[in-house]
Design brief:
six-stranded antiparallel sheet; 23 strands; six-stranded mixed sheet; single chain; globular
Length: 448
C-alpha cells in the first residue's frame, strides 16, 4: 500500500494520489488536525487507498477518513461527531473530536527531545540561481534560513551542521578570506541560536582543506594545520558553550570533556584535533562529531578514537549513539553508469573499519559532502548512513535521475522518546522552492 506523507499541505498529497480535493468553510471551533497532533509530538500520514489521515503518537496510532465519521483510535473503532474535512489545504476536525484525540493519546510515549541535521550550504562563485548577496558571500542563505525555520516548527532544539558551510578552498590557507566567509555564516547561525536552536558545527573539507594546482597541473585538495586553527578561531565559542547549551536545551550538558579528542599519533593524527572531533551526552543519548579530513590524513575518520568514545558512552548508560561527520562512509551511486568514489571509501579498508565501529555500537551516522539526500544500510548491516549534503550547495545530480529526491534540498529531523524509540523524518523541497514534502519516515529500530 503506497502512502503519501504529509508536510505543508495535506491537499498536495491527496492531489498527488489522483483523487479530487474538496474544501469546505471552517467553523469557528474546528481545529487543524496537524497542529493538534504536533502538540502531542506526533506525526501525520495520508493513505490514498482509504482516503485516511493516519496519526502516529509515540507507539499509538489512529486513522481518520476524510468526509466520514468512522475512525480508529489506538486500534478501537469509534464514531466521530463530525466528518474531518479540508479547508485551504488543512484537515480540520471538530472541537469534540480534538478533545477525543487528546484524551486518547495523553498517555502516549513522552518525547524527550528532537534534533535536525543537514550539511553543505556553500555555493560556487557565479551561481546563476542564487541572489547577488549569496554570490558575494558564497552561502545559500535562502535555503539555510527556510530549513532552520521549518526545523524549529518541528520542535528541534539542536542543529548538527555537517560541514561545508563556507566555500573556503583557498590555495594558501588564506585566513582573511576564510574569516570573511565564516563571519557571514556565523551571522546566519546566530539568528538560529537566538531563535532557540543550538547549532553544532562539523568541519568539512571546504573549511580545512586548501585547493591548488601543483607543478604537474593536477588539482590538489589537502587539509592544513593553519585551516584547522582558523576553524577553531571561528567556532570555539560554540563548541561547547555550556551556559548557552543549558539555556536553550533546559539542562546542563553531560559527558562533555574538551580534552576528549583524537590524540597525535592515534588514527594517524598529526595535529591538535580539539573542537574538530568532540562528543557529549544529552538526555540518555550520545552525540559524537568527527573531523573526516584531519591534516595529514585526509578522507579518514578517527576510528580508534570513536570506538573508545562510543565504548565509554555505552558504559555511562547511553541508549543511543548519533555520529556526525562531513564525508560519507560510502558514496551514493545515483548514476550507476558513472560510478564515483568520493567519501571515506577512497580507502576501502579504512572505511570498512570505520563502519564496523558504527555497526558494532548500533550507532547512526549522519553526513554531508555529496550534495544529495540518501539513506542506506551499508555492508548488509542494520546501521544507517543518513546522507544529507543537501543544504543549499549545487546538486550533485546535475540533471534529473528518475528519483525526485536526488534534486531536493533536504534535511532530517530526529525525535527521541522516553521508551527508547527513535523516529526519523526526512523533509525536502525542490529547486524551485515548492512546498516542503515529508519524503521518508521510519522508526530507527524497525527500519523502513
Amino acid at each position: 500500500m503506497k502512502k503519501f506523507w504529509i508536510s505543508c499541505a495535506l491537499s498536495l498529497s491527496i492531489a498527488a494520489s489522483g483523487l479530487p480535493v474538496q474544501s469546505f468553510a471552517a467553523e469557528a471551533d474546528d481545529v487543524p488536525l496537524r497542529s493538534l497532533v504536533e502538540q502531542l509530538n506526533g506525526t501525520l500520514g495520508w493513505d490514498a487507498a482509504t482516503r485516511s489521515i493516519e496519526v502516529n503518537v509515540g507507539n499509538d496510532k489512529g486513522s481518520f477518513k476524510l468526509d466520514s465519521m468512522d475512525a480508529s483510535i489506538k486500534g478501537q473503532a469509534v464514531k466521530l461527531d463530525k466528518k474531518p474535512y479540508l479547508q485551504n489545504g488543512s484537515t480540520l476536525v471538530s472541537a469534540a473530536t480534538a478533545a477525543q484525540i487528546k484524551e486518547a493519546f495523553k498517555k502516549a510515549d513522552k518525547l524527550l527531545f528532537s534534533f535536525s541535521t543537514v550539511g553543505d550550504s556553500r555555493t560556487e562563485p557565479n551561481t546563476w540561481d542564487v541572489s547577488a548577496q549569496d554570490n558575494k558571500w558564497l552561502v545559500n542563505s535562502k535555503v539555510m534560513t527556510r530549513m532552520a525555520n521549518e526545523m524549529r516548527g518541528q520542535q528541534s532544539k539542536m542543529l548538527f551542521f555537517n560541514g561545508d558551510m563556507i566555500m573556503g578552498y583557498t590555495p594558501n590557507s588564506d585566513v582573511n578570506v576564510l574569516n570573511r566567509q565564516y563571519a557571514f555564516w556565523r551571522g546566519l547561525a546566530s539568528t538560529i541560536f537566538e531563535n532557540g536552536m543550538y547549532v553544532f558545527p562539523v568541519a568539512g573539507n571546504h573549511e580545512v582543506q586548501d585547493r591548488y594546482t601543483d607543478e604537474k597541473g593536477k588539482t590538489v585538495k589537502k587539509a592544513t594545520k593553519a585551516n584547522e586553527d582558523t576553524w577553531r578561531d571561528n567556532m570555539e565559542d560554540v563548541i561547547i558553550d555550556e551556559k548557552r547549551f543549558a539555556e536553550i536545551l533546559g539542562e546542563q550538558v553531560t559527558g562533555w570533556d574538551p580534552s576528549n579528542t583524537p590524540k597525535i599519533g592515534m588514527d594517524n593524527i598529526t595535529t591538535d584535533q580539539k573542537q574538530l572531533s568532540y562528543s557529549f551526552d544529552y538526555k540518555g543519548s550520545h552525540f559524537a562529531i568527527i573531523n573526516t579530513d584531519p591534516a595529514g590524513n585526509d578522507s579518514h575518520a578517527p576510528t580508534a578514537w570513536l570506538n573508545s568514545d562510543l565504548d565509554k558512552a555505552k558504559a555511562r548508560g547511553m541508549k543511543h549513539s548519533f555520529v556526525f561527520g562531513h564525508k560519507m562512509a560510502y558514496y551514493y551511486q545515483f548514476d550507476p553508469a558513472n560510478p564515483k568514489s568520493d567519501g571515506l571509501e577512497v580507502d576501502k579498508a579504512a572505511a570498512d573499519a570505520f563502519w564496523k565501529v558504527i555497526q558494532d555500537h548500533n550507532a547512526t551516522y549522519f553526513s554531508g559532502h555529496e550534495h544529495i539526500f540518501n539513506i542506506s544500510q551499508p555492508n548488509g548491516g542494520k546501521a544507517y548512513q543518513v546522507l544529507v549534503g543537501s543544504g543549499g550547495s549545487p546538486f550533485e545530480a546535475t540533471k534529473p535521475t528518475g528519483n525526485p529526491t536526488d534534486r531536493m534540498y533536504a534535511w532530517v529531523t530526529v525525535k527521541v522518546y522516553e521508551s527508547g524509540k527513535v523516529h526519523i523524518d526526512a523533509y525536502g523541497f525542490d529547486a524551485f522552492f515548492g512546498p516542503t514534502q515529508n519524503i521518508k519516515s521510519w522508526d530507527l529500530e524497525n527500519g523502513f
